[in-house]
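Sample entry was shown:

___
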Amino acid sequence: MAKPIGTHALNLVRGALIGTAEVVPGISGGTVALITGIYETLITSAGHVVSGLRLTVSDLPRGRGMARAGAEFRQADWAAVAAVLIGMVAAALTAAKLLAPLVESERQFAYAVFFGLVLASVYVPYSSTLQRWRAGDYLLALVVAAVAFVLIGLPPSEIEPNPLIVAAAAAVAVSALVLPGMSGSLILLTLGLYTSTMDALNDRDLGYIGTFVLGALIGGALFVKLLQWLLDRHHHLAMVVMTGLLAGSLRALWPWQEEDRSFTAPTEVPFTVLLMAVGFALVVGVLLLERATRARRGDAQDGHGGQEGHGGRGGGDHPGGGGAPQGGRHARPASGSAPRM
């Protein structure tokens, strides 16, 4: 069944929010994707596309055709992915001119809003698993948060780039890009390749750019498949790790820090804390809106199922007609399954 126009429009907005976040150093587009409920759909779809491309390369030369590759491609939610990409690119181009200068000029206040946003979003992976958190889960999340905190707090460095280093850094940066709480630009800053990468883009250094893109494609393909496998087979563990990553990533958005990531004495505390609360409230509002939307969708599915149950052919042709509805808000999704948008 084709998705309603409203769903496509919502995915455009989700993409716009993700693209806007990617422009701001320290903010991860993966965080926004997780908040807006599209993260698992994108990762799962990307995993199927990677598998389809791999099967295309392996099957076509052997004369096996496109059957297996086509099956993988069909499992991707192309409508959602296309809408998100369109919104993301359009918003990133706009935000680069409008939002980035504002963040630079009002760094403390902008980071305060983003700090509150990410702080509230820690609840999303924490509550996205059907399993009860055990003591070991809390300990693992704490360790992941501590490691992320330390790594993000490392001061920027500068190194002389060579093709191997550039490709490896690109693979790491793009992997961080799809993880909630991690920023690809911060990874490049820490590795000492942010300036050289920006210079290569501005100077149209095709050799550097090609090496970077190759590393990004390899790293992204491998990491997306790993994430897809974790979400499918170890969903609870993946959510525990993401909770820790989001908590640790708050280090990058602490309002009172210098560009070398050293802490400074707090100033203008009341207004800064107020902006943190605004960011926190924005995420809470998005989560409540998402919950209300899913509840209405579930009610509509329940009502549609009830009408079918009282159709002209009667209940005898519908075994189990008195059972619980298969969809709707009462259905419990299987662990690891991507949410349907």
Remarks:
- The chain has one domain: 5-300.
